[in-house]
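Many introductory courses stop at the sequence. We go one step further.
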Amino acid sequence: MAASPKTRRRPYAPMPHPGRRGRWDADAIVAALRRWAAETGLPPRSEAWSGTRRDHAGPAQRKWMREHPRWPSGSCVRAHFGSWSAALEAAGLPARCLTFDDPVAERVGAAQRLAAAGSTVAEVAAHLGVSRSTAGNYLRAGRCPECGGPVVKPGAERCVGCTRHEPTVARAWTRAEVLAAVRAWRAEHGRAPSYHDWTPSRSRPGRWEAESPRWPSAAVVCRLFAGHADPWNAALTEAGQPVRFERWSDARIRSSVAEFWVLTGRLPSPADLDRPFWSGPSARTLRRRFGGVEQAGRALAPVPADVIGAEPAELPLEVALVGALAGLMRG
């Protein structure tokens, strides 16, 4: 029997941006929440105000898509109020309690102990103050391979804590689209985006979250430009934008320390950072990364026994290369 051909997944196609920039403020969002509740009889759920695929959506989500851009997106609501529950409370609508005093690992442990003692899913949910579906997720929780914590989201491979900085909206960005997005951000904001601007944040959502998926995440940008030593700044440079902050990897700092060692015969001190022989990062960067200049030198530099009296073939590669270059420059 011949195998059925594999269904090709339809490529992601973002919905148009909802009209005029800045049309949604706190008052407009509150009015929209109340209007939705009046029309449907229930306050909206956050997942209902998002999405692009009608074939995978429920009735409330299809209403949001069908009437788009009449309603704001869920990320826009959270950007203005900090959380979905806070927005519902501002609109005078009933809100579920989505914050807990105890961490999720303790709730998962409590749910599994209750189930082992014979409690039903409904009883576990009532005891913990969560929905039955959430209680079921607690009971089926797996283990995160990175931190060992519980993975309660169905279909997820890692926990929320280990994926909080990854893109939350699936989109196949290309390098050309990323460069266009960088230029568009510069045109609207008067400066190129920073790595922080395009890093998703649940605790302090900003414009990236409010307009998602209009902008790529910093993780996506760095993945597309991973062939460069500094992927983020490489993207800014290729887009024709000035580089505001230089990102220093351990390898780059180690090369600077090695170069200084070859030229001076010692590790750098704080006073050396403003002198011509130092080509590495600022004292502030070294202090933040290693605790200070001396600590960075001890952590990254070759020790004297590795260098003094060694043949070139025995030297670390970067030291040998920099030493050869320095010799040519002096010659």
